[in-house]
Write a structure and sequence with these properties.
Blueprint lengths: L4 E5 L6 H11 L18 H11 L6 E5 L14 E5 L14 H6 L10 E5 L3 E3 L9 E2 L2 E4 L14 H14 L16 H6 L16 E4 H10 L1 H8 L12 H9 L4 E2 L2 H4 E5 L6 H9 L4 E5 L7 H15 L9
Parallel strand pairs: 1-2, 1-4, 2-3, 7-9, 10-11
Antiparallel strand pairs: 4-8, 5-11, 6-7
Helix pairs in contact: 4-8, 10-11
């Protein structure tokens, strides 16, 4: 199997220069249209690197994508680390951008990136050992193809998912999609419940690291250049955007993937204002390979939760990685 790269995006919202750029473009935007959690920095990013070094030492390169930012603790001389600025692979007329959908639309254009890569958000932590075969098998992305209707609710990603599915249903026939596997276990029920639909209702989004083929991006850009270019030039999330899930959905709909049991692979968790002990215990003791731990705009006493979060991660990863100075 070919080598695998990791790509992770990160932003430091406390950076005054970055704040100044953002403020120039938010003057005419309502505050309600910009989620405060979109840019919030938790001080936990070094534990992402500790998890990678300890549990995925086989990774080829780690591409850290930022807007000319760099954590002060980061060892930029680490031979596995590649710093990527937005203007290294995005067109100048799309910059600056504060839109994850735009930032991920052209990941395949990152100079030097391998054909097989895994995209991480900075809230996805590798807590236990992973193998290359957890992400790619015979050079196919490992994933789970299960139906899930798109749930519309305020400030959700539903708009992006609807836009994605409009494209998917344009090119693919539901009857040709591989949607059942013994590896999915009880998750097969999701597909069974919506098997009668004439169209693809949506794919279950795991909120876990996504394995991608660069060829998927290239194919979609060749077919849907206009809508992808529109997303690329949206400075903030826009209801007309697509998202990086479109590229994942394309791989699932075209059967360009290898089935994976996600119950054993990872889990999504959301922080709460109280009773986060369950999450802290999972970080310290669980057998999950990966946990995605989402921020929450409604959190109270954020500083105390951040302190507890960092404490749990430090319990799991007490030793500095070679990615730290």
């Amino acid at each position: 199997m070919d080598k695998i790269d990791f790509v992770v995006t990160w932003v430091d919202d406390s950076d005054e220069f970055w704040q100044g750029k953002r403020n120039l473009y938010t003057k005419n935007k309502s505050k309600s249209s910009i989620k405060k959690t979109t840019f919030r920095e938790w001080g936990t990013f070094k534990y992402w690197f500790r998890g990678v070094e300890k549990n995925a030492p086989w990774v080829n390169k780690i591409y850290l994508v930022t807007d000319h930012q760099c954590p002060e603790w980061l060892n930029t001389d680490n031979r596995k680390l590649v710093l990527v600025n937005h203007d290294d692979y995005m067109p100048q007329d799309a910059l600056p951008t504060f839109n994850t959908n735009a930032i991920t639309a052209k990941l395949h254009k990152i100079p030097g990136l391998l054909d097989n890569f895994v995209y991480f958000n900075d809230d996805m932590y590798i807590l236990n050992p992973v193998k290359p075969e957890d992400f790619f098998y015979s050079n196919l992305p490992c994933d789970m193809s299960v139906y899930q209707p798109i749930a519309p609710y305020q400030n959700s990603t539903a708009h992006f998912q609807v836009n994605n599915m409009g494209i998917i249903n344009k090119y693919f026939n539901k009857k040709d999609i591989s949607k059942y596997s013994f590896k999915y276990g009880k998750e097969n029920i999701r597909s069974f419940l919506f098997d009668h639909n004439k169209f693809i209702p949506g794919f279950y989004e795991t909120h876990l690291p996504e394995s991608f083929l660069k060829s998927t991006f290239e194919e979609l850009w060749s077919k849907e250049n206009d809508i992808l270019d529109q997303t690329l030039h949206s400075k903030f999330r826009n209801n007309s955007d697509t998202s990086e899930w479109l590229f994942r959905d394309w791989q699932l709909a075209s059967n360009q993937f290898y089935p994976r049991n996600n119950d054993k692979f990872g889990r999504l968790l959301g922080l709460q204002s109280t009773d986060n002990e369950y999450i802290w215990d999972l970080i310290k003791k669980s057998s999950y390979k990966i946990l995605c731990i989402n921020d929450n705009a409604e959190l109270n006493d954020v500083k105390e939760i951040q302190k507890e979060f960092r404490s749990a991660l430090n319990y799991k990863f007490p030793t500095k990685s070679k990615f730290e100075i």
